[in-house]
Amino acid sequence: MMRAAKRIRIETGARLHFGLLDTSPPFGGLGVMIDRPATIVELSAADQWTVASAFQKRACPIAKRLCQAIGQTSLPAVAIDVVSAAPPHRGFGSGTQLSLAIAEGLRQFTGQDISDETLAAEIADRGKRSAVGVHGFFNGGMIFETGDEDRQTLNPIRQRLELPDRWRLLTLSPATIAETVSGQHESDHFARLQSKPHRSAVNRIGDELQRHIVDEILPAARAGHFTDFAHAIETYNHTSGTLFAEAQGGPYNGRWVTELIASLRNAGAIGVGQSSWGPGVFAWCEDESAANALAEQFASPSIDIQIARIKHTGRTVTER
User: Which residues does the UniProt record annotate as the domain GHMP kinase N-terminal (predicted)?
Assistant: First the structure.
């Protein structure tokens, strides 16, 4: 049954991905949730299913899968308003956060008892490779996830940590993007990488990446040692990038990202890397003052820059 006429508001942040552990399932990886760019979706009662044309291709399949799961034949009479969304194809996990926000809104609006895992994997259809963004949506924080080859659902969380509140992340992405790695293009990359006869080298790098996480990143995070943590993240990100060098042309995806990361390092920034396939770039900063100084140094009309806080909590759901 549809709920009484209320407005449901779902708010979530963005996901930075520091790199996968493998080029093949179950992949595994490490990332963190940040508070911006934010995704906000509102749902309200309507005479019929209503959503802006720009979001029909994303929202309609989610609603249809929900209806199929609950035995409903028609789309719910609800209006979906995407108030804000992270820019797509920047490496900020915008697709996962938006899909999950829509799915969560529909779950809340219809009052269905659907588990988080079912909502993510079957209704929103996310988390097929890395589940960092899915776990981040529900839990926030820094997520280290791994899995096994036989697992058919989401990779489980191996470790989730809350980082010091004072730490900041500077995100930088091009104001305009000509080419992106997403959808079928991304699937084609993975298909080619998985067909290469370099399994022993991939396994070796994967073991090295897990050692970076367990022996360096997690201990530094727990202790609040910023410099050690930032250097370890940068090393991890670069090493993970070597797994995809054939597809990217190096550890980073293209000239723009490679040159920006080099410029940030030359400026003294640490904890610098590429999020997911890019072109979004991140730099860790010890506090707000350091983030502001670095942002001013790289201010340019051609670069979108934001200073983000770590998002320690999962999505918020409010009813009005």
Answer: 62-135
Instruction: Give the integer Cα–Cα distance in Å for 213 and 305.
Output: 27
Residues 102 and 198 in one domain: no
| pLDDT tens figures, 224-268 | 999 999 999 999 999 999 999 988 899 999 999 999 999 999 999
Q: Provide mean pLDDT across the span 260-278.
A: 97
Would you state the structure tokens that stand for residue 302, as one six-digit string? Answer: 């051609």
For β-strands 78-84 and 50-51, DSSP reports them as parallel
Tell me the whole-structure pTM to 2 decimals: 0.92
Q: Is the C-alpha dihedral spanning 120, 126, 130, 132 positive or negative?
A: negative
**Closest to 303 measured CA to CA, from 256, 258, 268:** 256
Q: Domain check: are 156 and 248 in the same one?
A: no
Contact residues for 287 (Cβ-Cβ < 8 A; gap 6+): 166, 167, 168
Residue (of 49, 113, 121) closest to 81 by Cα position: 49
In a domain, 62, yes or no: yes
Dump pLDDT digits (tens) for 25-64: 889 999 999 999 999 999 999 999 999 999 999 999 999 9
